[in-house]
Amino acid sequence: RPDASSGAWLSLLLPVALAISYLHSHTTTPACSTSDALHLYQIVIAVGTCLKTLCYLLSSTLTTSVIFKWLINRLPGFVTSLCFALQPETNWPLSFIAGFLITTIYQYVYNSVMRGLPKTFTYGEAAILVQGLVLFVLNATSRIYALFALQAKPITDFGQLNAIMQSALLCLVLVCVLLALVPVLRKPLPFYLLMGLLLLAVTCAPVTQPLPLQALLNFILNDSKRVYVIVFYMFLVALTGATVSWQLGSSTQANTRVRKIFHLLIMLVFVPGLVYQCALLYIATGVAFAIFVVLELLRLLQMPPFAATLLAAFDSFKDVKDAGKLALTPFCLLIGCSLPIWVTCCPCGQSDQLNPSLLMLFSGVLAVGVGDTAASVVGSKYGRNKWTNSTRSLEGTLAFIVSILLSVLTLQLMGILDMTQGKWFATVFAALNSALVEAFTDQVDNLALPLVFYILVGLA
């Protein structure tokens, strides 16, 4: 991405977040330890892909022999293989094959993304997204295998929703791969036929008992509160559409404060969802992400009759970081707020007690929805004292910190968060450091800030 640093440090965030999630699950929710093996494998893969990114960047900058560069690029595969082999009851030859294969696939996908979407990502931003994609595909594939080969059908509501979301997103990944490999599918008729097949697979794939569509309807209709929350979500969708229509009618470029409306809207989605309907919010994040991908495909492939409107909306709301073809900031806003839910083991906790992971789950909402929004609004209107080597203001940074601490205090007084002295210390520490990252980074903060905040409050 033009006028941005490499952002290599971002590749460290996902492995550290997964490790924090693993340690947190053992201290607060020991019932989640049944998925220990899978979680450990995810950490190993994340570490391996992180090393692959760092070694790739190192070898590309060194002016040394080809053999030495080759050894540097083989190091991540060796480390990943060794970590796999150290797991109990592991086949050593298979571990070494898996380690080198996974890091090689990651590098191939990483290079394809950087070349296929020029000027869209920094090296670090692409690393986070490709790390997440590789982890998701491997995780979803293993769970789908367990569903069909081992006949391990999920029985809990969350288990069924997880199976539905993972199978649906895996089908969406396959559709994107087909579109990339088969040019004829990018024409309107084949494209819409492919979308119809995708919808059929998502609603009728035998990953749950009953089928996904019926299981989802049963889940929603069995609780009147869920119906109310969905109605509220539909109202927010209508409000979002009205905001976009209003901005398009004004024929001007949306400024920073207008774009922050979407931060407030996503905060209104996540707060009641996390507090009252965590499982519903979990599936909703998957649905929203899938809709974002389909809309972006319609825009990029210029599919009638939607492409013109989507292109106008993108041009009106795009940020300086949307330098490439992809609408990066809205994707990262959704992903950033959702990542704490996606990487946390047993995110929805127990229904009869306060969720001990709730503060960590609020990381995206607090860092992006509250802190970043307050910093942007206050900084753009009242910011007078700029940080050295930064366009951000001291006033905006103070607003970032104060808004987060007041929000956490409000949630505590409402009985939503159970704050201890250790959690308060971690929250203050996380707010201070996230505010400094927001002030000085040139990376997409919607992606970086939630993970930074998640890691630091997870230390409590």
Automatic annotation (TrEMBL):
Residues 1-19 form the signal peptide. Its main location: endoplasmic reticulum. It is an enzyme of class 2 (transferase). GO terms for molecular function: dolichol kinase activity. Its EC number is 2.7.1.108. It is found in: Endoplasmic reticulum membrane. Keywords: Endoplasmic reticulum, Kinase, Membrane, Signal, Transferase, Transmembrane, Transmembrane helix. GO terms for cellular component: endoplasmic reticulum membrane. The chain crosses the membrane at residues 38-59, 71-88, 94-114, 126-151, 163-182, 189-208, 228-249, 261-283, 326-343, 358-378, 398-417. This is dolichol kinase. The lineage of its organism: Eukaryota, Metazoa, Ecdysozoa, Arthropoda, Hexapoda.
